[in-house]
Specification:
The complex is a heterodimer of chains A (257) and B (218). Chain A is α+β, with helices and mostly antiparallel strands and 257 residues long. Helices cover 25% and strands 20% of the residues of chain A. In chain A, the strands form two sheets. In chain A, strands 2, 3, 6, 7 and 8 form a five-stranded antiparallel β-sheet that branches. In chain A, strands 1-9-4-5 form a four-stranded mixed β-sheet. In chain A, strand 2 and strand 3 form a beta hairpin. The mean pLDDT of chain A is 89. With 218 residues, chain B is mostly helical. Chain B has a domain of 75 residues. Helix content of chain B is 69%, strand content 0%. Chain B starts with a helix and ends with a helix. The chains are: A alpha+beta (257), B mainly alpha (218). Chains A and B meet through helix 3 of A and helix 2, helix 3 and helix 8 of B.
């Protein structure tokens, strides 16, 4: 029998998408069981705890909770410290999920930036059109999740400027990226609109070298290094969570600094 | 029996139940933080050549170690705040850890070097114990502060500058871990040498009169 409490009209599809992640991460039984296992198993640090499914689920649920906390901690008006150009490391430090000799350079002449999702004008962009956009420069600290850091000088159009230019719906939750090296990534809209979030085309005043993402890469002063995809080929504005290369392997999604 | 010894002048147990709970929660979460921290450390070592064997690391590689570290931090902070609040509000810190007299400190060190370690009275800490407990509590506080600086070097850029920069904050975080591990080694060794102390932290230990009760008598 149909429950009298069941509404006649189902919830908006977009709302469901909005909360799918949250719902997925907050299965009460899983959280309870996970929490209990977490408590009990921490006494046995010598064993391989992380192979247990329920422990993994609990840790992922807490990582999701930490995403929410970090979004609250993120101050969209707070600027990251900047540094004198004399401190810039040349060349930049290379890091990826493969070694530098495995880098496959992108041909600038045939390269296109495709747009998708909640964007009004989805016409693809080429290198010349990107270069004609207003350019900003920032000398900021790159912080890697591994612990090392360096000062880098990045130039390019602000992502916020670009999103406005193409008529993106900036009330959407996420901006997602696809890259030539198969390194999908996604960020929150608040960080996408931060003034120190650039679609970088230059490093230390010169066109990006191949290992560092020529012709276009993301560079954010407010997130860890692995959140900055190189060799971007497509940008999508969306309300659907899509994670990223390292996030699928257990790294934290928000990764704000 | 115990009850016949209860007089109005006598107070609660040496370790009241909140202290015991917070102690064992802290012991558990400290192990999680230390061993997961070793897992994170290994990707970019601070001391060249110093690696932590996989057996001692919590998490098969950096991602799970980071997950453990950033899950454990909540328990560490909330339990730590409760412990600090309790110690300050009940006067336990002042009563158990102060005062530390320099002469007493020197004498205890000399006694210890001569292997004259007295634990006849569990209810009174000697000067070295008091100092070590204060140091490890401060190290715990320092770990939270430096941890916050490393986690959010942009949102808390002022804190990072105060600590002398991002890498310096990392080194202080590592040093704080070393202090806590050093304390842990001594603390556990002594607890095993004098098992009554371990038993007291499980069951509460002997009943003690508070300083205030003693003051009221004089």
């Amino acid at each position: 029998m149909r429950s009298p409490f069941r509404p006649d009209v189902g919830p908006d599809r977009a709302l469901l998408d909005d909360h799918r992640r949250l719902v997925g991460s907050l299965q009460r039984r899983g959280l309870l069981r996970g929490g209990l296992s977490l408590g009990a198993l921490t006494m046995l640090t010598g064993c391989d705890l992380t192979s247990s499914k329920s422990v993994q689920d609990a840790l992922l649920a807490i990582s999701g909770l930490n995403d929410e906390v970090q979004a609250l901690l993120f101050d969209p008006t707070k600027l990251a410290p900047t540094y004198p150009a004399s401190m810039v490391l040349k060349p930049a430090k290379f890091n990826a999920y493969y070694d530098v000799d495995k880098v496959k350079p992108v041909d600038g002449a045939s390269w296109k930036l495709e747009l998708g999702g909640l964007i009004a004008d989805k016409t693809p962009w080429n290198v010349g059109q990107i270069a004609a956009l207003p350019e900003n420069e920032m000398v900021i600290r790159h912080v890697c999740v591994e612990g090392w850091d360096y000062i880098g000088q990045w130039s390019g159009v602000r992502l916020s400027t670009f999103l406005q230019r193409v008529g993106a719906d900036t009330r959407a939750k996420y901006v997602a990226f696809r890259t030539a090296d198969d390194y999908p990534s996604s960020i929150d809209m608040a960080t996408a609109l931060h003034p120190q979030t650039l679609l970088a085309t230059k490093y230390a005043g010169e066109t990006l070298a191949d290992p560092f993402g020529f012709p276009l890469r993301l560079r954010m002063a407010t997130k860890l290094g692995y959140k900055n995809p190189k060799w971007i080929t497509a940008i999508e504005v969306t309300n659907t969570y899509s994670g990223g290369y390292w996030e699928k392997r257990g790294f934290n999604w928000f990764a704000g600094i | 029996m115990q009850s016949t010894r209860d007089t109005p002048a006598e107070g609660g147990r040496l370790h009241p139940w909140p202290v015991r709970i917070m102690h064992w929660v802290n012991a558990m979460v400290m192990l999680v933080m230390i061993t997961s921290g070793w897992g994170i450390y290994d990707d970019d070592v601070i001391i060249r050549g110093l690696h932590f064997n996989q057996w001692f690391r919590l998490g098969a590689w950096a991602a799970p170690s980071l997950q453990w570290h950033f899950a454990g931090m909540w328990l560490l902070v909330f339990n730590g705040l409760a412990y600090l609040g309790y110690g300050l509000a009940t006067g336990r810190f002042r009563e158990r850890l102060l005062p530390i007299r320099p002469r007493e400190l020197v004498q205890t060190v000399i006694d210890t070097l001569h292997l004259r370690i007295s634990h006849a009275d569990l209810t009174v800490y000697n000067a070295v114990q008091k100092l070590l407990y204060i140091v490890v509590i401060l190290a715990g506080v320092s770990q939270v502060v430096t941890g916050l600086a490393i986690w959010k070097p942009v949102q808390f850029s002022g804190l990072v500058a105060l600590l002398g920069g991002f890498q310096t904050a990392r080194v202080i975080h590592f040093a704080g871990m070393s202090v806590i591990v050093g304390f842990l080694a001594v603390h556990v060794a002594l607890a095993l040498l004098v098992p009554q102390t371990l038993w007291a932290m499980l069951t509460g230990g002997p009943r003690v009169r508070s300083r205030f009760a003693r003051m009221a008598e004089t």
